[in-house]
Amino acid sequence: MEERGSPDGDPAWNLEQGSERPETPIQVVLRVRPMNAAELRRGEQTALHCSGTRTLQVSPPGGGPDVAFRFGAVLDGARTQEDVFRACGVRRLGELALRGFSCTVFTFGQTGSGKTYTLTGPPPQGEGVPVPPSLEGIMQRTFAWLLDRVQHLGVPVTLRASYLEIYNEQVRDLLSLGSPRPLPVRWNKTRGFHVEQLRVVEFRSLETLMDLLQMGLSRRRKSAHTLNQASSRSHALLTLYIGRPAPQQMPPMDPGEPPAGGKLCFVDLAGSEKVAATGSRGELMLEANSINRSLLALGHCISLLLDPQRKQSHIPFRDSKLTKLLADSLGGRGVTLMVACVSPSAQCLPETLSTLRYASRAQRVTTRPQAPKSPVAKQPQRLETEMLQLQEENRRLQLQLDQMDPKGPALRGARVAWAQRNLYGMLQEFMLENERLRKEISQLQSSRDLARDEQRVLSQQVLELQRRLLSARSLHQRDPAPAPPCSCLMVPVAPCHALPPLCSCPYCHLCPLCRAPLARWACPQREHHLPQVPGPAAPAGLPLSARPPAWAPPCSPGSAQCPGERSHGDWTQARGWAETLTGEEVVPSAPPLPVGAPKTPVLKGGVGAPNLAQRLEALRHQIGSSLRRGQGQPPASKGAQSPKDVLPPC
Ligand code: ADP
Ligand code: MG
Fold first, then answer.
1. Could you give the C-alpha distances from 502 to 74, 139, 155, 418, 524, in angstroms and in order?
2. pLDDT, mean of residues 633-637
3. Which of 37, 169, 322, 448 has its Cα between 20 and 30 A from that of 393?
4. 508 with 524: CB under 8 angstroms?
5. Which atom in ligand 1 lies closest to the alpha carbon of residue 109?
6. pLDDT band, residue 245 (cuts 50/70/90)
7. 3-state DSSP assignment of residue 328
8. Which tops the pLDDT comparison, 62 or 523?
9. Angle, to 10 degrees, between the axis of helix 375-404 and the axis of helix 423-478?
């Protein structure tokens, strides 16, 4: 038989060539099986005659006018399996599936009319006995063709398969690892009707796919009755999923989204049967009723789909699992091929006529083929969402940056103009700018942290200087004898940020700024080292926490500077300095003493001093002056050294 597929008169041909038509009719081919041995034995007559390659003449046995039916192709009993494969147009569907369309091939007809034979060949003669290659059906031949086609495509393609049956209105997975159990059929907007928890197996070779087919065929429900010794008692759907990998730069698909790519589904329907004719009883009868009900629902849907007012009418796809799973193929976005199978026997004429009527009506049903949106096609929408997110992030970062850096707004402007050129450019631009802003913010944050650290160190120094000033005053009041001059009195201030080191007795700490020994009182172990200097006894009843810290200046009995009576202003002032410098509350190392009138002069250039350097200078100045007064030295202004260049004695 000559291969079909000519552009003439085949509306779906244009689909294959790329000019997608808004509406494509279901393609129908008719296969008339040869008379079988039993029919010949019974001397049954044929009522069907092929006229040309597309028309079938039906001659009623009792006389009467012939009825003609025209299909895409009519294949009589003499046609081989290979002829059917080449003529039915399944390769066109394979091509469309490779291009991302959802395609369905299904066989339709009375029980025993050759549906299963057309799709998969004769029933296996034994477990593990393969069908002879010459008798292989449309499915095996399409598998071989598709695998070969994929190999020659030159692009990576993922191939997966699922196989299910609808038996007594229950969906069962024929590839499940355990015993088949009913699976739910669900609907959602993206996927339409689909079976949940269905096992989908990836395969790379024809052998694997053939094994999957054999596995499914062997698990499918079959029974023997009068008209068919291996009658399928279920509708079986084998689906091949053809996936093309998404381009690398594309974002990943959303989880739960069906894989982009085409589908090629083979549906072997169970045949309609007259229970009286098949002699079905018991379970067989129940199965037959269930099969007939779902086929009735299918016929009803096809009738309604032919209604010119169909846009307004409701198509009851939900009436059966079969119509649910074929909804897309019949009235949706799929491309569909129906192979109607009939028996030539005049005995089966009523069922044959019924099949022919349905088949000829089905070819007037149209679908709107549409390739599932690939990641590339979805990209603009995804880009848009991503762009909005990036814009939002960008705005937030910009705000943050503007708060930290007042020059920020000037950085935009020119970039925006460039970014408006196109969507991709814009996205790229936002990503770059976000990256830059993130870096800038992290730099600013680290320099802020550095500044804070520095502030902390400086404030500690201020506290230390304050402490020394207080101790110097205390010393001079207690011991008017001149103290040995500190070497650092005559040297410029070293830029020293060191904190006081631990005691290096017998006599001293080191000065944190000049490293000269600190005053005796500063040593926390002075009681051991300098017994001649009386230590400050804790006032009776004074809680330990209220005792002066180890570094506090000693006091002589009755002194006004005794810790118990120490001016609150002395403490709060030092704390105020530190708080001013750090901007944070400074937790005192000892609890504040009771508030009292300040008995020591308030430091000049204190809390309101314009900057740290000035404050430090003022402190040094005061300390220097105080010491000179105590030592009877002339004021620094009269000496060789300026007050700012001296440090308090240690
Ligand atoms: P259905 O699936 O429609 O119920 P089957 O495909 O099982 O029918 O076919 C019924 C019987 O007819 C099987 O034994 C099958 O081998 C045989 N048969 C069907 N079609 C052909 C054909 N074209 N050539 C030879 N035998 C066929
Ligand atoms: Mg069958």
1. 107, 90, 75, 62, 9
2. 46
3. 448
4. no
5. 3
6. low
7. helix
8. 62
9. 30
Contacts of 631 (CB under 8 A, 6+ apart): 482, 483, 485
**Which two tokens mark 198?**
């269905």
> What was the pLDDT predicted at 408?
52
Q: Tell me, what amino acid is at 500?
A: P
Q: How many CB atoms lie within 10 A of CB 101?
A: 24
Give Cα 470 distance to the centre of its chain.
65
User: Alpha-carbon distance 378 to 250, whole Å?
Assistant: 10
Query: What distance in Å separates the CA atoms of residue 373 and residue 359, rounded to the nearest whole number?
Result: 31
* Lookup result for tokens 């779902």: 294
Average pLDDT over residues 123-139: 83
Buried b (16+ CB within 10 A) or exposed e, 621-632: bbbbbbbbebbe
Nearest ligand to residue 355 Cα: 1
- HSE on the CB side for 119, CA within 13 Å? 28
Minimum mean pLDDT range among 265-279, 302-316, 379-393, 501-515: 501-515
At 441, list the tokens. Answer: 């913010």
pLDDT of residue 490: 42
284, 286, 288, 290: CA torsion to nearest 10 = -150
Annotated binding site for ATP: 109-116
Residue 46, pLDDT > 70, answer yes
Ligand nearest to the CA of 117: 1
How many helical (H) and strand (E) elements, i.e. helices and strands, does the chain have?
Answer: 17, 19
**Alpha carbon distance 357, 339 (integer Å):** 13
Assess contact for 400 and 441: CB atoms under 8 A.
Answer: yes
Ligand 1 in reach of 81 Cβ (< 6 A): no
φ/ψ of residue 267, rounded to 5: -115, 120
pLDDT at residue 582 above 60?
A: no
- Give dist(CA 223, CA 228) in Å, integer: 8
Between 624 and 420, the more confident residue is: 624
**Strands (DSSP E) found in 502-614:** none
Q: Which two tokens stand for residue 369?
A: 């083929």
Q: What size, in residues, is the chain?
A: 650
* Nearest ligand, CA 123: 1
Residue 6's contacts (CB-CB under 8 Å, 6 or more residues apart) are 13
CA of 233 relative to ligand 2 center, distance in Å: 8
CB-CB neighbours of 646 under 10 Å:
25
| Token pair of 52 as six digits | 């040309």
Average pLDDT, rounded, for the chain: 71
* Coil, strand or helix at 519: coil
Residue 77 CA: which ligand 1 atom is closest?
23
Find out whether the peptide bond into 536 is cis, omega within 30 degrees of 0. Answer: no
Instruction: Name the token pair of 649.
Output: 């004695």
Of 195-204, 286-295, 468-477, 635-644, least confident by mean pLDDT is: 635-644
Pocket-testing residue among 48, 117, 226, ligand 1, by greatest number of atoms within 8 A of Cβ: 117
Q: Is 272 in the pocket of ligand 1 (CB under 6 A)?
A: no
Give the whole-angstrom CA distance, residue 12 versus residue 226.
Answer: 39
